[in-house]
């Protein structure tokens, strides 16, 4: 990891998102703009992810989930797919020791059975070695598709019903959440880079009440300053979860108080 960074003064440490999710998009366009091959963008993107993890840990954000490869990304040219798979493996080998030392708990989410056996081995090792760490949860979505994840969760729940462990009336939102790869931990903030404003099959269930932040910056340019801006925006939002707006609540409180005083 890079050197320690301090939480910017204008951010309220009590009101930070507990869980940030990122759709790391724009690596190819970043490279293209520089006359470089797309893989150069992916290489730079991996460095940026490492710095973001550093920020999360230093600033007290407990979980980071990054979309690294979707179930749809297999449609790309084989050479790019192969490069990405090797990059994931290389990064794991290279960074595992330091991440472990920093207290990072690494988890991969997605259909891991579709990955090469050597990558599966590195993933299993990283997850096993860091399972007891508590400083920051780092989830990497590889061969991840949200619809696929929901189908997988439903199959597991259906199996439990078949075995008679539960009855259909036991199927609840909480039970489905528990069977998702993220196991009930929903992001507070979703960031997507590169100007695209879509989810591309990422965490469809988990993002039900997540704040969304879109920036035109390409992922390889998403530095701590960009993250700072995303957090400023997040802290200026009013998360209502279906409640009445805060302003309405305040006006109501004032009216009730005045009514009580004049009574
Ligand atoms: C995101 O960057 C990385 C992955 C999807 C693996 P892209 O490769 O999608 O970059 P653009 O969108 O083509 O610029
Ligand atoms: C989403 O980016 C997937 C990842 C960032 C891993 P894409 O570049 O694949 O998404 P689309 O195809 O533009 O929607
Ligand atoms: Mg893209």
Written overview of the protein:
The protein has 263 residues and is α/β, with parallel strands linked by helices. The chain has one domain: Undecaprenyl pyrophosphate synthetase. Helices cover 46% and strands 14% of the residues. The protein is built from 8 helices and 6 strands; from the N terminus they run E-H-H-E-H-E-H-E-H-H-E-E-H-H. The chain has helices spanning 27-33, 38-59, 78-101, 117-130, 146-162, 173-178, 224-236, 246-262, and strands spanning 19-23, 63-70, 104-109, 136-144, 189-192, 211-214. It has a 6-stranded parallel β-sheet, with helices on both faces. Helix 4 (117-130) links the parallel strand 3 (104-109) and strand 4. Bound molecules: 3-methylbut-3-enyl trihydrogen diphosphate (2 copies) and magnesium ion. One 3-methylbut-3-enyl trihydrogen diphosphate (IPE) binds next to helix 1.
Report the CATH architecture: 3-Layer(aba) Sandwich
What's the rounded overall pLDDT mean? 93
Quickly count the helices.
8
Distance from N terminus to C terminus (CA atoms, Å) equals 63 Å
Strand/helix succession: EHHEHEHEHHEEHH
Lateral arrangement of strands in the main beta sheet: 3-4-2-1-5-6
Total DSSP E strands = 6
- Largest β sheet strand count, sense and barrel closure: 6 strands, parallel
CATH superfamily: Decaprenyl diphosphate synthase-like
Q: Which ligands does the model contain, each kind named once?
A: 3-methylbut-3-enyl trihydrogen diphosphate, magnesium ion
**Poorly predicted residue ranges:** none
Radius of gyration computed on alpha carbons: 21 Å
Please give the share of residues in helix.
Answer: 40-55%
Task: Return the structural class.
Answer: alpha/beta
Number of domains: 1
Task: Could you tell me the CATH topology label.
Answer: Undecaprenyl pyrophosphate synthetase
Shape: globular
The amount of beta strand, in percent, is 5-15%
Q: Please identify the top-level CATH class.
A: Alpha Beta
